[in-house]
Fold each of these.
Amino acid sequence: MTRQRYVALTAAYNEDQFIGRTIESVLSQTVLPVRWVIVSDGSSDRTDEIVRGYCANHDFMRLLRVEDTRARGVIRKVNALNLAYAEMRDVEYEFITNLDADVSFNSTYCESLLRSFQLEPTLGITGGLIYE
């Protein structure tokens, strides 16, 4: 498979129970993102501390902290993702993934998503299945 370059965006709000597992899932990928920006959207738990710890050891990871969280609902998440997207200006990539802060997945998940685009070049979006 051709290695295709992708970036990841994550909005996180009080996800200290899940964010470590999400990060470990990304770190286990057979194809890593060239940059992953996690936006802590006013978290009041240990989310920032956990993410900072991983960022210190992985150059492709970034943490942004948002203090002004007056927006609510989906607008709040959109604003956080827009901030993360702005951090991609200096990176070359072909694909963007919006990754929730409370998910985990196997080590070939991102590779399989990229393969979908190779198999169907006109594909505009792809995703995986959710198991609860």
Note: The chain has one domain: 6-119.
Amino acid sequence: MATTAACFHLLVAPQRAVIYDEDPSEPQGKQYVGQAVWRTEKVEGRNGTTDIAIRAEIDIPDRNFKATLIIRRAKTALSMFSHIVEMTFQLSTGGGVSNVPGVIMKSDEQARGTPLAGLAIKVTDNFLLMSLSNVDADRSRNLQLLKERSWFDISLLYANQRRANIALEKGASGERAFADAFGVWQQ
């Protein structure tokens, strides 16, 4: 159990985060660079149990944009979903995030990626959940993508109907958080 407890620590090395905002006046859109800080954390489950989750704190200062991404497993064996991705957004322009059309995993920032199989729903303004499919083939592919790909590409639709993409690098701290979480989840 000592190794399990050791994985619940702050991994403070920030990784690259970039938001690409659609802008009608600029065909390439506008790019804002910030950082993502990855870590693992304990989360409370049903019946007083605890589990591990992966957390990314995203900060894009020049865009006045902050977001939190939390990935946790769905612990019931009969669940239709293998994992839940919670997305919370704080932004000053665009009227908030109304939809996340997809999450794509990529080998690098500019590569074409592969979408995670799942369904995103808006819970409240600026809080969305994506449930990852628990169908055998989908679950296997999703888990492989989460473990092996180095970048997340999250598509956003703002309330004002403009679009954006957030590219998040896992980097060393993200890779460590994912390795720690998957180590516990596979026990």
Note: The helical segments are 2-6, 136-148, 171-185.
Amino acid sequence: MDRLSRRDLKSLMEHAPGTCISLYMPTYRAGAETRQNPIRYKNLLRQVEDHLQAAPLQSDEVRTLLEPLRPLADDNDFWQHQSAGLALLRGPDMSRLYRLPLAFEELVVVGEHFHLKPLLPYLSDNGRFYVLALSQNDLRMAQCTRYHASEIVLDHMPRSLAEALRYDDPERQLQYHTGTPGDRGQRAAMYHGHGGRDDRAKDEILEYFRQVDRGLREILRDEQAPLVVAGVDYLHPLYREANTYPHLVETGITGNPEQWRIEALQEQAWPLVEPIFQKAQAEARAQYERYAGTGQASYDLASILPAAYEGRVETLFVAVGAQQWGRYDPATQQVQMDEEAGASSEDLLNLVALQTLLNSGTVYAVEPDAIPAPSPVAAVFRY
């Protein structure tokens, strides 16, 4: 199972043209409903086959593309361990599978490029965040959206204070007692001793947190999403001292998180990050409204597409659940709109969003009613 990052998205955007399969589906995480996951997948896989049969491909090309996808339908263990949504991307020379905290709408697209727009709410700066649950006995991390959370596997990182320092002498171990998960706002662990021993305890925890921070640099490389820390009160200033991630949220979750479920961490973190997202998006909307009608903003897709290819789009609002099928020729800057998907058409909303990202623009992938214009797309131009 692959982990999705901005770097991965860029690699997928720059993938050489070819026959690319993009499959999205919501998934159930627990209970008897998980039995619906493979059934839904098989139905979507049949749609993939229909698209491929209609494409100008040789039978052996179709077989090569489909072969790695078929065994997944009967992998019951795989379907028992899902997040909110599944994204499968398959090209002639690569396959990617992502379990993400996004409840995708069912969608199958087969074309020359990957259809990546459903992934943008996860990777854009308007709704994705991380929670780091810290204690001296345990370390967990969740990737979250407004409605969902999933735990990240933490490799090459200490999972406790003892593991970080690799104690050999039991007498050197920090003596502490742990409170209950219900003791929110109280110290779940307290130092014993005075003077130099307290200083040593602080230094040991700082070393633990520095090791955690080094591990997070790899996980959060190229990220801009907020990071919320959960832990007992005295750990927060120590972690801030060790932290080098520039998007750490100043206010964290106070309490002992050892027994809290990932979903509880996400619910407590959302009120802390929501104002960050609201402020950035409100500023972008206000900017669009200031420039509307001046030539520096537009909601005309035929005008925005060439600007995106030229790197002139600074901010883009695009509707997540909508598609505008058609064709675009960068050489002539000609845009053709189609009423429905055809053999040679692609989603132009997907194309304009990806080109904006490739040229370092900001993309807000939002619900259609959040677009600040009577259109599924709106843009502010750099010039």
Note: The chain has three domains: 6-120, 129-274, 292-381.
